[in-house]
Specification:
Blueprint: E1 23-29, E2 34-39, H1 45-55, E3 59-66
Antiparallel strand pairs: 1-2, 1-3
Length: 68
């Protein structure tokens, strides 16, 4: 005699949350020094630029790029 397997409900995959984009910010200061930053808490490129400028002083230029 063979045993019957108990039928289980199909498992649903967990809901996927849309990943927030990450940005790289290249910053040049008035002194000529330069740094790269990873910006994670921004919604878009203009928000990433605003985050960088709010955190840093004496910034001459900022270039923002989307990380892949």
């Amino acid at each position: 005699m063979q045993r019957q397997r108990k039928q289980t409900a199909a498992r649903r995959p967990p809901p996927t949350v849309a990943a927030r984009p990450e940005f790289t910010a290249a910053v040049r200061y008035h002194s000529g020094r330069r740094e790269l930053f990873r910006v994670r808490n921004a919604d878009d490129m203009s928000d990433a630029r605003a985050v960088v400028l709010a955190e840093l002083d004496n910034v001459q230029s900022v270039v923002i790029a989307l990380r892949n």
